[in-house]
Amino acid sequence: MTASFNKLVSELETLPGIGPKLAVRIAYYIFRSPKETVFNLTQAIIDVKEKVKPCSICFNLTEDDICDICKDQSRDRFLICVVEEPKDVLPIENTHSYNGLYHILMGAIAPLSGIGPKDLTIEPLLKRVREGVKEVIIATDLNVEGETTAIYLSKLLKPLGIKVTRLAQGLPTGSEIEYADEFTLKESIIGRKPI
Ligand code: ZN
């Protein structure tokens, strides 16, 4: 092993889900790949870092100031679905049973990890709701952090006189929106309940 090879392995190991063995396998794969393949990969990484940013309205990922969903005038602007991370938007979009807007919290309340309400995009959400929203669907994960966040949000949102609902029906306790199957997620959107 050379110093450069070891450096690549240790960088790869910092990625989620990549242990020491897999890091070595990927490093060998990169070493054996044509220069062009490796260049395309590194360029893609740099582009994501330089071009992708949070939407100024909903905090979803975008390369413009406003994301495609917020720009889409055919969507119901009185309905907001609140999710924890940008990666939670796609599974909900894939159900084809939701036509409102989104709000990405950029996490969930997790006191043990030192994440409080101030670390999330709750203030911008309240501002959007005050500007005219009829219903907020809280689609945080069904684990402890997600439930804590849902309860916290409902206490803030209900006094604003809007309908606050939660995805729950059919989704097992502890489940994450990102991994929920399409059918169950669709049913839970259609059958959402007030909280
Ligand atoms: Zn947006």
Overview of this protein structure:
This protein has 195 residues and is an alpha/beta fold. The chain has 8 helices and 7 strands; from the N terminus they run αααββαβαβαβαβαβ. It has 2 domains: 3-51, RecR Domain 1 (Helicase, Ruva Protein, domain 3, Orthogonal Bundle), CATH 1.10.8.420; 56-194, 3-Layer(aba) Sandwich (Dna Topoisomerase Vi A Subunit, Chain: A, domain 2), CATH 3.40.1360.10. The protein has a 5-stranded mixed sheet with strand order 4-3-5-6-7, covered by helices on one side. The site of zinc ion (ZN) has 8 residues, from helix 4.
Q: What count of domains describes the coordinates?
A: 2
Number of helices: 8
What is the level-2 CATH architecture name of the largest domain? 3-Layer(aba) Sandwich
What is the terminal-to-terminal distance? 57 Å
CA-based shape: elongated
Could you name the CATH topology of the largest domain? Answer: Dna Topoisomerase Vi A Subunit, Chain: A, domain 2
What structural category do the secondary elements indicate? Answer: alpha/beta
Arrangement of strands in the largest sheet: 4-3-5-6-7
CATH class of the largest domain: Alpha Beta
Indicate the mean pLDDT: 94
- The tally of beta strands, per DSSP, is 7
